[in-house]
């Protein structure tokens, strides 16, 4: 549909690894140095507890669980530094994605965000200039649900007041894309910027104002 009107009313974007860049190695190295434990142990513990963090437990509890898994006794100052480094590592934005969001918004395309993210990152993003074009921001920690659980998609569709077949969804994880497709949502797995632009153009979302 690249040359015609759009069949989509709203585009729902994931944040991590779609709008944001993967946490850079220097941020991860800094966390490892602060943690003072074997990197493989730190990241195994971190990812084992991350789902609960994304679902809504507080940062102090998340880092307490990580510390218990790695056998560490971190001071409150150390936990604060780990927390600050972690939050910062997830909010490095892709310039091409930010430009595309401004372009879509300028063309009158409705935008929403659906991210598996803890409250700390959600709070930061609510004040981010890159989030300015979005009419709604949905975060797993605030909803008590994580993608790809079906209830989170139902909630987003209900809140946006849009039909599944007139909703587009962009995410980098296959399981999240497949879950959206089961609802009849036009979902795209993000791999690169060119592929994302092609998907949006196929649905008549690029240059919509010029074609109107």
Could you explain how this protein is built, in words?
The chain is elongated. Helix 6 links the parallel strand 2 (110-115) and strand 3. It has a 5-stranded parallel β-sheet, sandwiched between helices. The protein has 2 domains: 10-21 and 93-211, Rossmann fold (3-Layer(aba) Sandwich); 25-89, no CATH class. Helix 1 (25-35) packs antiparallel against helix 4 (76-89) and helix 2 packs antiparallel against helix 3 (59-70). The chain has helices at 25-35, 39-55, 59-70, 76-89, 95-106, 119-125, 140-143, 150-160, 174-182, 193-202, 208-211; strands at 10-13, 110-115, 136-139, 167-171, 186-189. The protein contains 11 helices and 5 strands. It has 212 residues and is α/β, with parallel strands linked by helices.
């Amino acid at each position: 549909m690249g040359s015609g009107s759009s069949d989509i009313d709203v585009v729902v974007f994931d944040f991590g690894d779609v709008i944001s860049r993967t946490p850079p190695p220097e941020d991860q190295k800094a966390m490892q140095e602060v943690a003072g434990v074997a990197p493989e142990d730190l990241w195994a513990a971190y990812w084992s507890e991350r789902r609960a963090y994304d679902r809504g437990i507080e940062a102090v509890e998340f880092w307490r669980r990580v510390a218990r898994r790695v056998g560490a006794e971190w001071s409150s100052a150390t936990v604060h530094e780990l927390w600050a480094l972690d939050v910062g590592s997830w909010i490095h934005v892709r310039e091409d994605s930010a430009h595309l969001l401004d372009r879509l918004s300028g063309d009158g395309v409705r935008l929403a965000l659906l991210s598996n993210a803890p409250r700390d990152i959600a709070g930061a993003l609510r004040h981010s200039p890159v989030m300015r074009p979005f009419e709604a921001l949905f975060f797993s920690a605030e909803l008590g649900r994580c993608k790809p659980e079906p209830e989170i998609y139902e909630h987003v569709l209900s809140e946006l007041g849009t039909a599944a077949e007139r909703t587009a969804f962009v995410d980098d994880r296959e399981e999240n894309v497949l879950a959206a497709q089961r609802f009849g949502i036009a979902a795209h797995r993000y791999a690169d910027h060119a592929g994302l632009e092609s998907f949006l153009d196929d649905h008549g979302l690029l240059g919509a104002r010029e074609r109107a």
